[in-house]
Write a structure and sequence with these properties.
Elements lengths: L14 E7 L3 E7 L6 E2 L5 E5 L6 E10 L5 E6 L19 E3 L10 E10 L7 E10 L6 E6 L8 E7 L12
Antiparallel strand pairs: 1-11, 2-10, 3-9, 4-9, 5-8, 5-10, 5-11, 6-7, 6-9
Length: 174
Amino acid sequence: MPNTLTKAENFDGRILGYTTVGIDATADSHTLVSATMTVTDSTHNVSFVAPPSGVVEIFISIYADMQRRTVVLGLSDAATYAAIDFPNTDDVTNEHAVAIPSGTPGTQDNQINHTWVVTGLTSGTAYKWWLGAKTQLGSGGVLRWGGTATNEYAPFIMKVTALPTAVADFAVYG
């Protein structure tokens, strides 16, 4: 049966960029501070070319030891944190508070799997984005990845997936 999809539809669901850090590598970490978003590590980035729809899903996975604090995650378009300005340059909306369970100290460890939907990208344009983070309350909390022995942390993962063009009832972004 011939492929009847248009060129743009062939991108829907395609992984456009993928980075993993920490597979069989020395465990590493990033301690969070409250006042400033900072890039978690110079290797925590992903490069991709925007699909015909101009819409992507960014996924990250990282281990968090949060000491009863809430982590804020954001996307940066520079190795020194600079929030991306999509879809609206006047309203940066990519910084998200990610809840960590409350409880007694030592019980707030969690694997964070978080996504962003980013619209308004220019089809065919290359982008490179880094993960940024901070804590909402005081200093504290540590993001961790990798290891070479038993009980190691999961590797850091950052992935970009092409999303379909917004069409009534099939892909709605708002």
